[in-house]
Amino acid sequence: MFLPVLLIRDMGLxxxxxxxxxxxxxxxxxxxxxxxxxxxxxxVEKHGGACRAFSAVTIAFHVFFVLWFVPRxxxxxxxxxxxxxxxxxxxxxxxxxxADLAAAAIAWVFSLIMCVLFMRTPAAxxxxxxxxxxxDALCLLPVCxxxxxxxxxxxxxxxxxxxxxxxxxxxxxxxxxxxxxxxLVMILFSAIYAGALDPLLSADWRDHVRxxxxxxxxxxxxxxxxxxxAFHGRSLVASRITEGGVFGLLVLGQIAIFVALATGFAPRIxxxxxxxxxxxxxxxxxxxxFPAYVWIxxxxxxxxxxxxxxxxxxxRTVVLAVAVAAPMYWLGFIQNHMAxxxxxxxxxxLARYCVPRTAYPKIEQPPVK
Length: 369
Fold this sequence. Notes:
This protein has helices spanning 3-33, 37-46, 48-68, 71-74, 76-79, 81-92, 99-119, 136-150, 156-163, 168-194, 214-238, 243-262, 274-298, 312-333, 341-351. By secondary structure, the chain is mainly α.
């Protein structure tokens, strides 16, 4: 909903392309890689903690965004309706998880209507060039490829979708159509309104009158955010989250609320809105931490190795890789020295070879009769 706003501002249309193409392809390929519902169930069983952490962070990310940026479009009380919508929807569909598919379709049609309405305004213009050189988009590309190719395998909502489709062929078609067509339309919408939201990230954004089209974009963001939080919340419950996990989610949500409200009083950091800095730090979890876990702990190094819970060697390697790459990601994401993102990705890619092959359990073959 919002990352393309930053990328188009910084890198123009190339920034959006570097974001959109890996996003669509990475999500669609999950329907091809996980060949059966059983493979999805096994992955979630063995790496349930990481999957639940992914959903918890995603919920906190949306809580933060709804309270940080959406109020600049329609005010804080109206932005808060996203949480009311989430709660009402979950209460009404508590015993009907199958309603999620219909709700997703309704939300997509609603956002499509908002897109049509926004395109009738003069603000619907895509800036061709950004503040940074176009070549910086090439430096961002490895991060997008790494993040969007690997993060889907920790997404409990994606796994729910994969487990609901029995046949491999049907899964390929379903994921291909949903992400290659339905999801792509929403990403195109984000490119259309990206340039119009730039003034709300400037140092003097408080001096700007709320744009007339603000309600259109806010309605789209509120509905999509509410649905995303509801789907991840339902997926967390279905994954048998513990009481400690629920407590951790509540703490994380409270921190997100506090940080979102505090950004309104904080000074700019490296000439960036403080809320944008926090937003970019959230993105680093999807561009560094979660992909590093999938690459090192889930993707097998040796053909014929089983998907198993990560051993201490793999976890230690993830922590070390993230610690080494984090300063490079900071220079790239926060200080806009995009070239540093390339060695950061290289660190993650090479880190898995520090894990001994014996750390990956071997698949037990049945005896030949």
